[in-house]
Amino acid sequence: MKYIFEVRIKEGYTAEQYADVWVRASELIQQAPGARGTELHRKIGDPNGLIAIAHWDSKAARDAMEAQHDERIAGIIRSAAPFVEIHRVGSFEDPEWVVMPAGYKEK
């Protein structure tokens, strides 16, 4: 599963400030069973536009992590609230198969 979020940095703040918060929360979240990593990307040509992608084994694994309320994670996320707007783009299942062009090598 992939969970994708669009992040907008508010005026007066930087993507680097959010990245610090994001890393601290992600380090804790990634300790949960079924967590498979996270990514944070800056939008080309827009230093205040980011996209965050969280990878999970399943929706059930992510739901279980969220059900186990961790005040450390909640506190870190609350600390970012004044300087970001976060919109959930959606949840996507990993494909059963992937088609790649000939010669493509995964990085």
TrEMBL record:
TM stretches of this protein: none
SUPFAM superfamilies the UniProt entry points to: Dimeric alpha+beta barrel (SSF54909)
A GO molecular function held by the record: monooxygenase activity
Annotated keywords: Monooxygenase, Oxidoreductase
Superkingdom of the source species: Bacteria
Record-linked Gene3D superfamilies: 3.30.70.100
Protein name: Antibiotic biosynthesis monooxygenase
Listed InterPro entries: ABM_dom (IPR007138), Dimeric_a/b-barrel (IPR011008)
Source species of the chain: Marinobacter zhejiangensis
Pfam families membership: ABM
Domain ABM: start-end pairs: 4-64
